[in-house]
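Input sequence (553 aa), recorded before submission:
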Amino acid sequence: MNRYRVRPASRPQPSLIPLILILAVALALAACGARQASAPPPAAAPAEAELVILHTNDHHGHPLKYDLPGCPGAGGLAARLTLVNGIRSRHANVLVLDAGDVNQGRPESNLFLGEPDFIGYNAIGYDAMALGNHEFDAARTVLMEQKAAARFPFLSANILTADGKPLVEPFLIRRFPGFTVAVLGLTTAETRTLALPRNIRDLTIADEVATARRYLPELRRKADVVVALVHLGISEDPGFGSRRLARECPEFDLIVDGHTHTFMDRPLYEGRVPIVQAWARGTVVGQATLRLRNRRVAGLEWQPLPVNVALTPGALFHDPKVAPPAERLVEDTALLTQMAEYGAKVDAMLAAVIGHAPATYRNNPGRAGGYSLGGLVCDALLWYTRTQGADFALMNRGSIRADLPEGPIPLKAVYAALPFDNTAVIVTLSGADVQALFDYTATIESFQGASPIVSAGVSAVLDHAARRARDIRINGQPLDPAATYRVVTNSFVAAGGDGYEVFKRGQLYDTTVYMREIFAAYIQESGATLVPDDRPRIILEGAPPPAAQKPAA
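Predicted structure, token format:
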């Protein structure tokens, strides 16, 4: 039985004749593959035409609506379906694209390996999805099962197998009345360090720009409009991610991006190329309306379409202010019923209350108020491994994906905060290697997914300008370069993930116990209420202020 089967949704039903035509076209396309290299040229183009591109990114396993601070019931695939269907009813030529990281988020998705998400994406009728780095969190077999279940292609031209061929389709060609569109998929080369090493060890992730330059001549010959669907990220650094792509590949008509969870209220232009991104977790659908004249893009209008949330934009690279919407999108009943089944299963599995939080423990240190969730998780890791000789805990901030809200703590909240199947690993390092470890953390751009979090009793000053760490103290004592230390971290970082190559110098012992199990046990052991530890741990010098911080990718 197909686990990803979509039940009938509330979409307009086509008449019999268009269905026959659609089937005929589908058979023809299947014969020539997603590239459609041998398809006939389109009919004569009208002088004026319009293409609407709807796009999302960084869905991160949020199939059901969820609560944002100040706005309950945001997002959700059932509301997204209503929004997309409404736009399709008003526009003839519509492409629906996702820029990657569909996976890894809430328990409703993680515990079922993304099943509800791809059921919802099929119901919405996505045309293509770029591979994101989190598509490699699970084993390759999971990715291939998702690919087989999806009624749309996965795209990435720069992820190559051992024989040098793309792991998935590199691009998509879509024909509309009078014009043709090409969509090239690209995945961030950061996947080399962001993905679990064992899941990509047989893959080559080629440079994004070099790959694009290789495909662009072919795509410009085949299509009138060329779109890059990429999981690269937007940064203040024009030499990074999608801005670099736009600067070095001005042949693109539009770059639809993901990875950095960037909220935008207008396109970012790099030269003549517009770059767009639609925040994250299904709270926004981007709408790009391209005006074509004589088969060439003559104009672009773009807007973010909130999904059951009111948004007040701030500056670029800053999250917007959120509030309840004045009017809510009605959720598609059939899809909502199907998604709710997963929510009910998770609620039954993870309903037990295991403790109480005196205030919200924040995952994102850029938010005001609350305590550090990262420090609490590190304290839990050290607590569990003390009897095995661990001296301190250090891990990456990106392993934590949600806040721990104030009040009763259900087991479900632990799974939401720690969605990855990371185990606790003890690594034995020399004092000199510990110095090198902290020196590496001083090279990481502030508050990124790779940024360090540590257990209580550890302190250090990270000098970003000097790219060095100083005043390192372990359990109150200065770091001794000649001593030996046992560091507990997560299995992703221990394998060199997020650039933590220093850990590969040491002796590793994998406890094989999942971090979330340790964290849940720590909360229960702490008694009825957690006791916060507000002592400063990591001090940053030469770092940007918290408001400019970006989320973990």
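Checked by second reader. The longest strand covers residues 296-306.
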